[in-house]
Amino acid sequence: MFKNYIKIAWRTLLKNKLSSMINIIGLSIGISACMAILIFVRYEATFDKHHSKAEKIYRVVQHNKLPDQTLYWDITPYPLAEALRNDFPEIETVTQTMGPIGQEFTINNGQELKIYEEPRVLFVDTFFPKIFDFQWVLGDPETALEDINSIVLTEDMAKKYFEVSNEDFDEVLGKTILLNGKDPLLVSGIIKNLPGNSNQNFSMLIPYGFFKAQNPDHALNWSGNHQGTTYVVLPNTGLEKSLESKLASWKKKYLKPEEDGRISFMLQPLTDVHNETAYGNSPGGYIMPFNILYTLTIVAMFILIIAIVNFANLLTAQSTMRSKEVGIRKVLGGKRLDLIVQFIFENSLVILGSLVLSVAGLNFLLEQLNINLMVINMQLELGLGHIGLIFIVGLLTIILAAVYPAVVLSAFKPIRALTNKIQFSEVGGINVRQSLVAFQFVIVQLFVIATIIVSLQMDYFKSEPMGFSSDAIVMTTVPNFEKLDVYKQTLLENSTISNMTMASGPPMAVDGLQLGTRFRLPKQPPEEALDAEIKVGDPNYVEFYGLELLAGRSFTTNKEAFDEFIVNETLLTSLGWSPQEAIGKKIEINEGQATIVGVVKDFHNNSFQRDITPCIIMNWAYFQNQAFIKIGNNHTDAIAKIQEVWENTFTGSVYHLKFLNDSIENEYLLEKLIFKGFTILSLIAISIGCLGLIGLTSFMVSRRNKEIGIRKVLGASILQIFFIFSKEFTSLIITAFVIAAPLVYYFSNLWLENFAYRIELSAWMFLSGGCLTLIVAMITCSFQSLKSALANPVNALRDE
Amino acid sequence: MLLKLNNIFKWVTTGGQRIFLLKDINLEVQEGEFISVMGPSGSGKSTLLNVIGMLDTFDEGEYNFLDESVHTLKEKHRSNLYKEYIGFVFQSYHLLDELTVQENLEMPLLYKKYKGSERKAMVADMLDRFNIVGKKDLFPAQLSGGQQQLVGVARALIGKPKLILADEPTGNLNSQQSEEIMQLFQKLNKEDGVTIIQVTHSEMNAAYGSRIINLLDGRKI
Fold this sequence. Notes:
Chain A is an alpha+beta fold.
């Protein structure tokens, strides 16, 4: 019997190639999109969960209570770990790390010296490998970090520095790498590359003792700038609250009284580090907030449900064509149960086809995600478990989508089925179908309009004037300040280079090039000081970036003891001065006192997410470690020239060149990811929605087949018939638009509030999204409506 | 006696009025009879056939089939009864397009749970008897109308029914094909003793039968 079912199923599939393909592809798009999102969510929600002690590890964080706000810091003073270890025997293990920070390494491979710069070098103490599980390929985790002149590499680094294959790692052990050109470090271990879903994203480990020996003052300093992170392991979960309260009274032992009042140490579960936004991301990492993950899960479920509903719809619509077969089979002795089994079996075959295709589709989607999200080191993999899950989803689909049409179909009365008198009311209400499709188009338009708004905001980032010029400006580092003049002179001699300035950073804070301070009037007490950003610039800085002077002048010199400030308008508003009044006044910052000699018009010193903040440019001879070079039209030549001059001037350092505009664009990385995400989701929503529409149209077409026949016989033109169908789904999409538009309005306003500078929402953004959807829908439906409009009315009207 | 209809009424209500499809039909059919039902369009011929075939219900009256009172039977029993004893032949053949001739013949046997070897033997026998062995692997669309109806009749017979109901079996055929089918019916009736009730418009076809029933507006005349 099953052989017979398979035969019929296969031949039916072949006979209706187009609709079978729509069924199979539609369902598999839904399943693979849903799975890809769920795999992504799972990946993002399981950061660092692979460590065996993950549930008991806590990161120590600081809450810094200021009069106007509380700052949440993921960094801790360097001596914290040791103090905790001494004073709290109940803590199982404590580890202190420093970094990850960028370091330069030199390697002598026998023929030449090679210099590399590594952005993610982490200094860790000997307790670190006891807390976190890494896969050690070579070396002993217990001892590898004991000698302070040792270094542990990941496999990739070992390959990069020693040009060896996996089998030859033995050779690497014991070899020497020079840190910053002077300190020899012995390779004492190799660990497997870290998984992508870990916040521990270092490429090399150097003993913390080395850092301590090099920076004895820093390492013992409880206040000031630090890049330390402290982790503790508690014997059990649930002890963190009691430890936190003990820390509250303990910290005065080490902190200065004024800091003791402000700072409190809290414990953050390791497993929350990646998903909690308060503390920001550690260098090189990123945060994936919980609410985005929840939203994505809901979206994934919606996609799956819609795909299943569409599938059931299409199957039911197509099954009416099988009514004759139902009639024949019943007359020839088939029981209802036989028919139910047959149709479920048949539909299951289609579902099986979709599942196989889903696995391939999922694989493709994951690859695309990995490629597109390379910046966050995304490493999604298709596992056997995922395939298993796909088949569970398939089973669910069979229950939801295959049983329903089978039950409907098998209930046909044979005599009616044979004479094609099946009423469409017998295969489910048209209203239900319409509402389902309308609902899908609400979602389609949500995504489409949201994508339009996100893209406009992205465009705004690029097109809105920033208050300074950024075109054709490249940045290089200045590793050796003494050779700065040579570098500058040689470059300016070249015709491809028109202008240069040395500074601590560009006008907009990019790549983390931002120095903070607090400012006040000399007569004010330090507590009343306000936050400000400082930039160190040479006398050419204001002119180079085209900053507009409202009063006063630019610097004339740089001095080792700075004495002049140029400030922005925003800083003046907090002091209540006009630009002219400000000239000649003195203000005090953490670094010292100086006179205001110039006031510049506000420029965007922060990316568009944030407001313009008080900003001070100072004539200091230090911290001018960035060279900004304006190049002519011939970029290639200019860049080649810069590299040549740079490498000749600063021998022994690693050359870097960046376009300022690229760095500015990087400030909008998250927005760019959101844009990509919305684009992909829009495409998925549109394709699934259109499949739903095809299902509905085929339904409407068969339901009104006879009506169309009569209309044509009575003289309706093809265009008029086409309009009958167009009218139906146009009203559907307009209804969907009316529901979707306010929703998008609400949510996009919410999103736009993230930006201090943003586009104004206006009606055309919404209308264009609606029109776009309508056009796509129109094209989708036109095939079937036209087919019906063009059909010979005789066929529609013939009754046996 | 094979079946007996007593005062059968069937009606539909349209606009508050009863429209009778069958009105006071009395009919007794003996085994081995070959009956032709005749009448103009809308006279209730097909309805009568469907009632006899138990594919359709009636509103009043009694129907006995092989000593079972069909009017008291539940739907399920009724369908079991027709599936066992009645074979249907349709004007438009109603073969399954996706199945070959052989597979079409085999289908009723699948539902009757015959074993594979038995099915094969029965199908082979039927192909042989109807002289269509050479066509067994063709699909219905590859056959002429007459050949399709031949397969239709063979399929109706393969379950060894006591009664064959044929609703205008030659309605879609040309005169030569019609004659062949009618001769086949006659042969089945005479040699194998199969009871046949056919609906027809044609006097010539009706003449093959042993008895003619004339209907007009749902009444026997």
